[in-house]
Amino acid sequence: MFYRPEDGHGLPHNPFNAIVTPRPIGWISTRGADGSENLAPYSFFNAVAYVPPQVMFASTSAKDDRGDTKDSVANIRDTGVFCVNVVEYAMRDVMNQTSGPWPRETDEFDLAGITREACETIPCSRVAAAPANLECRLTQIVKLEGAANFAVFGEVVGVHLRDDCLKDGMFDVLSFNPLTRLGYRDYSVVREVFSLKRPGE
């Protein structure tokens, strides 16, 4: 089949998210200017540069108590920092609990019973048990087409790696099995890896 998004797809559910898969999940922790804390997962997330290391995530909806966006973007606008927490399969349920449209005063760390620790380089909390945490300073927020679409870019200024995830000097994803987002309500998990050499190597 072929369809133009502006005309609609004619299917029971939008296939777009199922086409662009799997997607890593950026579990974004932020702190508001008033000291309140927020933790929310975003599947429009990825690393975008090596030197300096940079990541991005996109927020695509809004809440009545935040105007044109959600808590994460609103907090980052105020403070200029955020932390990306890597989601392992074992944390799928608590991650999902933090994805709800909770009021802005809700602290998702407390809501889901997640232990927090202070970041080293930015005034923000991180998920203490996560396999890795990326402490980020905002570089830019880009307004995308659409009413509530924002892409947030940040430079990674601090990296935490859980000790049990380091094997022979390498960060071993099979030691924690990253959770990934598919389409609809579907997720997947990384349980197998293989290597390919680039041409000329």
UniProtKB/TrEMBL annotation:
Which SUPFAM superfamilies does this one have?
A: FMN-binding split barrel
Which enzyme class, named as a word?
oxidoreductase
Question: Is Lipoprotein there in the keyword field?
Answer: no
Segments forming domain Flavin reductase like: 18-173
Q: Which PANTHER family match?
A: BLR2425 PROTEIN, FLAVIN REDUCTASE LIKE DOMAIN-CONTAINING PROTEIN
Q: Which GO terms describe its molecular function?
A: FMN binding; monooxygenase activity; oxidoreductase activity, acting on the CH-NH group of donors, NAD or NADP as acceptor
Q: What is its EC number?
A: 1.14.13.-
What UniProt keywords are attached to this protein's entry?
Answer: Monooxygenase, Oxidoreductase
* Name of the molecule in the record: Nitrilotriacetate monooxygenase component B
Q: Which InterPro entries match?
A: Flavin_Rdtase-like_dom, Split_barrel_FMN-bd
